[in-house]
Design a protein that fits this description.
heterodimer; A: alpha/beta; four-stranded antiparallel sheet; 9 helices; globular; B: about 375 residues; about 0% strand; ABC transporter ATP-binding protein (chain A); ATP-binding (chain A); nucleotide-binding (chain A)
Amino acid sequence: MKLNVKGLEFGYTSMPVLADVCLELAPSEMLGIVGPNGAGKSTLIRCINRILNPQSGRILLDENDIKNMDGIELAKKMGYIPQTASQIFPTTVFDAILMGRRPHIGWRSGEEDHEKVLDVLELLDIEDLAMRDIKELSGGQQQRVFIARALAQEPDVLLLDEPTSNLDIRHQLEVMEIITDLVAKDGISAIMAIHDLNLASKYTDRVLIMKEGKIFDAGSPSGVLTPENIRSVYGVEAEVIHRVDSNGGRPYIVPIRPLTE
Amino acid sequence: MRIYNRGEMNATEVGTKRAEITAQYKEFIGRKIIFILSCITAICIIAAISATLGSYPITVTEVYHIIVHSPFQNIDISHPITVTELYHTIVHNSFQDFINTNEEYVVWKLRLPRIVMGILAGIGLAVAGTAMQGILRNPLVSPTTIGIAAGAHLGAAIAFILGAGFTSGKLILMGNAFLFALIPAFVIFGLARFKRATPEMMILAGIAMTFIFSSVSSLLHYFSDPDMLKGLVVWKMGNLGNATWGDLFTVSLVLAVCIPLLIWKSWDLNTMGAGDEIAKSLGVNVKRTRIFVMMTASLLTAVVICFTGMITFVGLVAPHICRIIIGGDTRFLIPASGLFGAVFLLFSDTVARTIVAPVIIPVGIVTSCVGGPLFLYLIIRKRREYW
């Protein structure tokens, strides 16, 4: 499934948040969105999933404008993974993942839906948590449940809103590996808003760097994550190290100090 | 396809694990169904006992005999009863034709309407509370705590004072109650939407509105003539004793329409429990669902309150206890909580009838005595469990 975003504009009352955002996503591609707080990363993700309604611009899935799709149809094509849980009432992991089947089922969940839940439980190695309450889990485990729920939707595109920002480094790496594996093997494509430039560099195919609601630069990690871009976007002096190692020549970003104007 | 680090697990182990989870999940569902069935059993038992209690002594077997044989033995099987006839028998005639003895009079005219109203009102209020908690994502919400009950009561009281009597203008009474119930519903809505209200803020707004409504209804009491006053005051306290078979017919009709609609929406309520964003990303029209469910729950509350007065806290107690026992899945929680609400209200009414017998105290007083402390406990416990 190919995703195409054209001329997206979004604002709250009079404050523009996104201005003329265009992007393309090929099947099996992982796109990272980086940028400082308030640059519009999360807003962009939410607009693409129609959680927010942009004022203008078009979002096309294989040439079909998502404006013309109903919610269920869209939910079968796109899965959204939030940053943290906002579950209020007790819910088991199994039931939380079963929610992901909602676009596919009527009132009763069938045998097939339970099988699908078992599949994703296994895929994410969280079978042992199946009957636990979602609120009892650690951040990393919860993040896996969210990924599992989105996968139970059987989407073509995954949208992730800073999935790693509450996790320790081991869980950050694990979650990123899970996503890249899915993208590589299942032909799912992913758009991920992410704070950590090194994770973006290591795991994404393409990086889009945003500043004040606009796309500042886009391209391969080594083309975008340059000291110049980091200085202009974040106001941070950084060193970018290129090393020939198992990382495939992807850059390492070492932040040094915030610049005073 | 495997993601990472599960090389040591072979195919059979994976298979057993799947079977294990499936079995656990089935047992989990089974437990919910058992709970629902136990509630139904409890309703039957309490109803049977309750029918024997009172100043006129009747035994359980007599009650059983009167219910099973009396009205239906005379029905001519060769001439099947039509819906209109049934409606006439229940609503206009109130089973009058079948009443020959004192025992039959006591059971059919006095005790059964009260018991059935207890069951219906309990179901209605508890389901309304469960649905409201779901859409507002707030376990402190219930028809009582956000002022919807007080609004409905005031609406009905105003209609009553202006001349729509208990016997004639029931439709006007219910309509006005519904209208007034929508005021707090949409104030709470607005707060949640535009002010990003915290759970506590919603409740405080509800309490404020309850005060306003209740002072207006006190004003009505103050200016009403003494004949009306007692009726109004008793009605305000919540009372099942005035139910007629016609009322029961109306209430069950409203329940039969509203509750399936809410159960049908239970998947959407489940997803909204995980957050608006998740619900939207799963294809739920969050805004529309919220308004629809709120209106339906307000209608349920308004209709029940019209016939019973202010019965408080059933819609708070029932969903809480049920959630502790069977978990938060709304598909099961709505029916379970409704039935538990019926058990709770029926039990409270039985207590109300017997505790200082032969005086019967308003049931609302008993439910408040149970619900008030629970509400206080929930506030004190704060954000530990699920909010």
